[in-house]
Design brief:
137 residues; alpha+beta; HIT family, subunit A; five-stranded antiparallel sheet; 4 helices; 18% strand; globular
Length: 137
């Protein structure tokens, strides 16, 4: 995905020097982002300092963009390291940045194993890609 050039199709909203920001294809809420290093590593302490520093810079930028665009009541920011911790891709770290609102979870996710989103991923991609474009300029 990161090596391909069709960012909109792959939901990549921003590319840094060492990391990229991508929408979660199966989000819990609209705006659910992940910051992912280009290098494969299974632990945060396995990446170079420059990679980790840019990862945190992009998490901070993501926080600001999500606050401005979606005005959530809060955010979940975190990383699952290893299969036992719930890592979907155990050998490739990534930081989740997830906007949250009071009452945003419901029975559909819990019982029906179905996600309900108020916004299409294409619209979310456009909004966040434009927000990150200000970082590139």
């Amino acid at each position: 995905m990161a090596a391909q050039s069709n960012d909109e199709e792959n939901l990549i909203v921003h590319r840094g020097l060492y990391n990229f920001v991508v929408l979660n294809r199966y989000p819990y809420t609209s705006g659910h982002l992940m910051v992912v290093p280009f290098v494969h590593a299974d632990r945060l302490n396995a990446v170079e300092n420059a990679v980790a520093a840019e990862l945190m810079e992009l998490v901070r930028a993501s926080e600001g963009h999500l606050q401005r665009i979606y005005r959530p009541g809060g955010l979940n920011i975190g990383m699952n390291l290893g299969e036992s911790a719930g890592a979907g891709i155990a050998g490739h770290i990534h930081m989740h940045v997830l906007p949250r609102w009071s009452g945003d979870s419901n029975f559909m996710t819990t019982i029906g194993e179905t996600r309900v989103l108020p916004e299409e991923l294409g619209i979310t991609w456009k909004r966040l890609n434009e927000a990150f474009a200000t970082v590139r300029d």
